[in-house]
Specification:
Catalytic activity: Hydrolyzes the peptide bond -P2-(S-farnesyl or geranylgeranyl)C-P1'-P2'-P3'-COOH where P1' and P2' are amino acids with aliphatic side chains and P3' is any C-terminal residue
Shape: globular
Number of helices: 16
Keywords: Endoplasmic reticulum, Hydrolase, Membrane, Metal-binding, Metalloprotease, Protease, Transmembrane, Transmembrane helix, Zinc
Number of strands: 4
Helix content: 55-70%
Strand content: under 5%
Subcellular location: Endoplasmic reticulum membrane
Cofactor: Zn(2+)
Structural class: mainly alpha
EC number: 3.4.24.84
Bound molecules: zinc ion
Length: 427
């Protein structure tokens, strides 16, 4: 009853306050729903202390316990950081943080000799201040996540110096793109007349297409080192597989993901006839620098970029051998190429206009299809073992609450994927 009374009261407010109230109610509703789901999943981490019998073959109890503790820590972290950002957002709204920032940017413009007629300049200063604020309040959380949680569970490979340099670089690069793009957008809105929204929409569409096109070649290399995969058996086999399904592969890169963390991944990008594959060095058993220390026991060399120190080396040696064999890497790629062959990328772009929940459901379907595709390429057995290894390397937790998983997981639970692979392994 209290809720309806307050909704009634809201309806009698002026429009501006009504929107304000609606934003708050919506934001807290979403927040509480997500927190409820997270608590359900957290209960699973807490209560599932032994490897479920159906997983006995694929996960040892040590890895299971490691993964369980990692997920518990992550869930505690996201509870507190989520609570913080929800409260921060609410306080900003309640205490007029946005109008305050607008007046502040007006004052800065005034000092610089721009009068109130320069509202575009003022908007840009506003944007700069807002992004600066959000970057600085987000920084402690991100530091804690990297250097406490990821570090504790053996994933972090960054030094504090690398992290800070990276954060500053990210901020500068973002501003270099954001500021000119938004000033053009504001200009278009200003001169667009009655149909300004159509021009503005077209403009943002073009800008995002351009960004997607240049990202991999011009922006990503600012942050990470991409080297062509050396000639050899793995490269040959990748090329053969790409050719067999008419994938227009032009280059295979290895990205030095190990400089950030020991989480592993693989992806492809590029338009039309110019497709490239990127493999994380952490995915490749043969290339992973994280394995070097293990092979030579104590002969680990610090990285030659001046950022290595004693601490970092210790962290590396702790890691078990990680990554996949060549056949397994190929099986993972077979799955990725399945996404391409089945047109999932384009379908995702089209559907991303719709609700994100539908996208999650669809994405899970696509994962099964891509697995089935890799299976058709004769990779069922290798994909099976690759999925298990990747789950182990990334300390993925194999048990999940059904509601939480339905809402959040873009990939189906490991067990379901393995089951599906097994079912048709025979044929
Ligand atoms: Zn996939």
């Amino acid at each position: 009853m209290g809720m309806w009374a307050s909704l009634d009261a809201m309806w009698e407010m002026p429009a501006e306050k009504r929107i304000f109230g609606a934003v708050l109610v919506f934001s807290w509703t979403v927040y509480l729903w997500e927190t409820f789901l997270a608590q359900r999943q957290r209960r699973i981490y807490k209560t599932t202390t032994h490897v479920p019998p159906e997983l006995g073959q694929i996960m040892d109890s040590e890895t299971f316990e490691k993964s369980r503790l990692y997920q518990l820590d992550k869930s505690t972290f996201s509870f507190w950081s989520g609570l913080y950002s929800e409260i921060e957002g609410t306080l900003i709204l309640l205490f007029g943080g946005i109008p305050y920032l607008w007046r502040l940017s007006g004052r800065f413009c005034g000092y610089a000799g721009f009068g109130p007629e320069h509202e575009i300049t003022q908007s840009l200063v506003f944007l700069l201040l807002a992004t600066l604020f959000s970057a600085s309040t987000g920084l402690p959380w991100s530091l804690y996540n990297t250097f406490v949680i990821e570090e504790k569970h053996g994933f972090n490979q960054q030094t504090l110096g690398f992290f800070m340099k990276d954060a500053i670089k990210k901020f500068v690069v973002t501003q270099c793109i954001l500021l000119p793009v938004s000033s053009l957008l504001l200009y278009i809105i200003k001169i667009g007349g009655d149909y300004f929204f159509i021009y503005a929409w077209l403009f943002t569409l073009v800008v995002s297409l351009v960004l997607v096109t240049i990202y991999a070649d011009y922006i990503a290399p600012l942050f990470d080192k991409f080297t062509p995969l050396p000639e050899g058996k793995l490269k040959q086999e990748i090329e053969v597989m790409a050719k067999s399904i008419d994938f227009p592969l032009t280059k295979v890169y290895v990205v030095e993901g190990s400089k950030r963390s020991s989480h592993s991944n693989a992806y492809f990008y590029g338009f039309f006839k110019n497709k490239r594959i990127v493999l994380f060095d952490t995915l490749l058993e043969e290339y992973s620098v994280l394995n070097k220390g293990l092979q030579e026991e104590s002969g680990v060399e610090p990285r030659k970029d001046g950022e290595g120190d004693g601490e970092e080396i210790k962290a590396k040696v702790k890691n078990k051998k990680q990554g996949c064999k060549n056949e397994e890497v190929l099986a993972v790629l077979g799955h990725e190429l399945g996404h391409w062959k089945l047109g999932h990328t384009v379908k995702n772009i089209v559907i991303s206009q719709v609700l994100s929940f539908c996208l999650t459901v669809l994405s899970r379907r696509f994962e099964f299809q891509a697995d089935a595709f890799a299976k058709k390429l004769g990779k069922a057995k290798d994909l099976y073992s690759a999925l298990i290894k990747l789950n182990k390397d990334n300390l993925g937790f194999p048990v999940s609450d059904w509601l939480f998983s339905m809402w959040h997981y873009s990939h189906p639970p490991l067990l379901e994927r393995l089951q599906a692979l097994k079912n048709t392994k025979q044929d």
